[in-house]
Amino acid sequence: MYNARFFEKPINNVNDNFQTNLSAAIDVIKQNRSVLAKKILDVINSKKIIIHSFFNVTKEHYFKMRKDIKNEYGEILSENFPPDISTIRKIESKLEGIIYDDKVIYIRSSNNPPKMANTLVHEICHFLNASIYNKEKKINPTNLVDYYDEVRAHTGEKIFERNGSCLRRSDIKQIHKQVTDLYPEFLVSYEDALELGYIYSSYDGPGDKILQQLSL
After folding, report:
1. Number of other residues whose CB lies within 10 A of the CB of residue 153
2. Angle at 213 between CA 44 and CA 39, to 5 degrees
3. Checking DSSP bridges between strand 50-53 and strand 97-100, what pairing results, if any?
4. Can you give the pLDDT at residue 184?
5. How much is the pTM?
6. Which runs of E-coded beta strand occur in the chain?
7. Any idea of the CA torsion for 50, 29, 34, 200, to the nearest 10 degrees?
8. What is the pLDDT of residue 207?
9. Residue 49: closest CA among 151, 155, 120, 146
10. Would you list the DSSP string of 137-176?
11. What's the N-to-C CA distance of the chain in angstroms?
12. Care to name a GO molecular-function term for this sequence (predicted)?
């Protein structure tokens, strides 16, 4: 019983802090003047997505995460579920946020509200472009489609960061460079990211993808 109480208190504290920071992050989004901010808030209020800290990861998503982190970073996480605090901290050291099943978003619990707001915008932009991504993946099942998807999410972040001002050509170039640096595996050797230019994005919703309100 002593060990159970020992671990329960820190996790409860993390969850309390996460909810406080999440609420503050949503306030940051409310104050943003970009055209994207209202669309992000509409998604959050629609309950078509669920936002958790990594401490609330489901079993299915934990083992997906475990596989993803092994493939991308070469780090092998514990096979035990639920993961202990040290394992979650390892996940948080690698991931700011991630979305699974086009609807469940996990966010790093230690982020401050402005950083959490940016991560929320990024992951919700993946949600808003899910239909485009799925269609593209059927037509062209290569890593280039994943590159496009990351460009869309980073473009959403940049729109949010500009806080009501228009994107500049230099912003688009910076986005391509940033995604190329983060995900070099998404581009084959003959593809120059700066030559790809504008990539079609939609922040109006997941298109023809019908999503019901969720409760987990």
Report:
1. 23
2. 30
3. unpaired
4. 87
5. 0.84
6. 50-53, 97-100, 104-107
7. -20
8. 52
9. 120
10. HHH--SHHHHHHHHHHHHHHHHHHHHTTSPP-HHHHHHHH
11. 28
12. metallopeptidase activity
Q: How far is CA 155 from CA 82, 84, 118, 124, in A?
A: 35, 35, 11, 12
- Report the distance separating Cα 100 and Cα 60, nearest Å: 10
Q: Which two structure tokens, joined as six digits, stand for 186?
A: 């998404």
Residue 88 near residue 3 (C-beta atoms within 8 A): no
Which H/E stretch holds residue 197?
Answer: none
123 contacts: CB under 8 Å, gap ≥ 6: 97, 98, 99, 105, 107, 153
For residue 44, which of 96, 107, 95 has the smallest C-alpha distance?
107
Dist. CA 159–CA 156, nearest whole Å: 5
Residue type at 152 in one-letter notation: R
Residue 112: the pLDDT is 95
Nearest to 8 by CA among 62, 110, 85: 85
Secondary structure element (H or E) that encloses residue 91, with its range? helix 85-94
Question: Can you state the percent helix, strand and coil of the chain, rounding each to 5?
Answer: 65, 5, 30
